[in-house]
Amino acid sequence: MHFKPALAALLGAVGVAILTLGGCSKPAAEAPSKQTPEVSVVTLKAQPFNLTTELPGRTSAYRIAEVRPQVSGIIQKRLFTEGGQVKAGDQLYLIDPSSYQATAKSAQATLASAKSLADRYKQLVVDQAVSKQEFDEAQAARLQAEAALERANIDVRYTKVNAPISGRIGRSSVTEGALVSNGQSQALATIQQLDPIYVDVTQPSKDLLRLRRDFAGGKLQKAGENAARVQLTLEDGTPYGHEGTLAFSEVSVDEGTGSVTLRAVFPNPENELLPGMFVHALLVAGVRQDAILAPQRGITRNLKGEATALVVNAQNKVELRQLKTDRTVGDQWLVNEGLAAGDRLIVDGLQFIQPGMEVRAVEVAEQQPATEPAPSSQATGSQG
Known about the structure:
Helices cover 23% and strands 36% of the residues. It has four helices and 21 strands. The strands form three sheets. Strands 1, 14, 15, 16, 19 and 20 form a six-stranded mixed beta sheet that branches. The protein has a six-stranded antiparallel beta barrel with strand order 2-9-12-11-10-13. It has a four-stranded antiparallel beta sheet with strand order 6-5-3-8.
């Protein structure tokens, strides 16, 4: 039939076209390879760090003496300026001494008579002109007269009311003409020694226990010779110009607050600190020589609230670390466990990576110290 050659030719042409297209077609392009994520890291360094704790406190006088009369009588003079400085031994008041001086003169006369009689009996007893008993009685009378004179002279001295200690004296509770009595409950005035001065602060007992464990374990070094250094910030926010030392801590815990009282001693030559002032005490507990301070932006929390961090290991792979942090220091965390010197902590790019991934680490600015160095080489930190 005449159409068979034409059909064959058509089929041949179609086959050639198919072969031509197949020969001209190129293999599909391969998928682009994944790029290695880039992260910013900070290489951690061990550095000395002064462990400090800021605590509220109040000032109290180093010594307090309440001035009271030792004899009764009328106040004749007040010899001090209220609110001024007095020295130990300075006369503060004069109580009318007239009656006490008269008593002293009478006692002196009695003593002279008793002494004369005792001296005369001393010779007569040798001659057996008086009995031994009469001589002993004369000697006893002389001793009693001496004691009476001494007591009378003491009362005369007590009419001059003197300052028992040096310090600042407060208001007088009496004026000239007032009657005062020996043993009265009301003080005539109160003297407070303000140089040095105490600052009493409170600290939770658990923090004190932790510091003691760190000292015992060798993690901390004492900041001073058998004492911790303390600095003050006054109520208006200004720093106090003198450094104090921690004197002692109470051995008992307040059941109501769970705190112990720490007492510091500060020099106060200008009397800038007055009793009852509210202050903030910066307690330098010790120095950690190999502290690890990690930027806060590189520390996160898991669902349990535990601190975690991602670091780049030696194989440039991401590694998850569980941390134990102590406190914040500016924009950094003081890390107790989980990070070490030389670790490359990831601080940027955390949202694009996960543990086990290979990354390209780019070092960012060098880790800054916790605070600017102070003259006393102290760094501050708040409890974390």
